[in-house]
Amino acid sequence: MSSRGRLLVVSHTEPPSVPTEQTIRIISARQATREEEVSMKKTKKSGELRPEYKRSDFGPLVRGKYAKRLQESSNVVVLDPEIADLFPNAASVNTALRALVEIARRSRPRKSS
């Protein structure tokens, strides 16, 4: 769930050969489709896994297993909702920030030699 209450679909992987490695690789993250939301809510309510999965396929379940590590080492920036609403996507946020950085560079007083 995002900070704005949106259901997110996140795919990630951990390096299996190095269990002490503190790296999680985010493969993709996106807002869930309406169909996925409905499906996930149904699954959550029933407490059952989908038929294609077996509980034995998974290791021990730990809620928030990566939350602290992600907070400490992430370069993810959470925008306030009123700011986020101004941008249609991540690319537009990056474009705006790059423009702001360029303006800041140009407006700095130059050092005299």
Features:
elongated; alpha+beta; 113 residues; 4 helices
Q: What features would you describe in this structure?
A:
By secondary structure, this protein is α+β, with helices and mostly antiparallel strands. The chain has one domain (8-107). Helix content is 37%, strand content 12%. It is built from four helices and two strands; from the N terminus they run ββαααα. The protein has helices spanning 34-46, 67-73, 81-84, 90-107, and strands at 8-13, 25-31. It has a two-stranded antiparallel ribbon with strand order 1-2. It is elongated and about 70 Å long. 0% of the residues are buried. The model has no long low-confidence stretch (mean pLDDT 77).
The topology string of helices and strands comes to EEHHHH
Q: Count of helical segments? A: 4
Sheet-strand content, in percent, reads 5-15%
Helical fraction? 25-40%
| Stretches with pLDDT under 50, minimum 5 residues | none
Q: What general outline do the C-alpha atoms trace?
A: elongated
- Terminal Cα span: 54 Å
- Tally of distinct domains: 1
Taking the sheet with the most strands, its summary is:
2 strands, antiparallel
Helix/strand/pairing class, anyone?
A: alpha+beta
Mean pLDDT: 77
Strands, count = 2
What is the rounded Rg? Answer: 20 Å
For the largest beta sheet, what order do the strands appear in spatially? Answer: 1-2
Oligomer: single chain
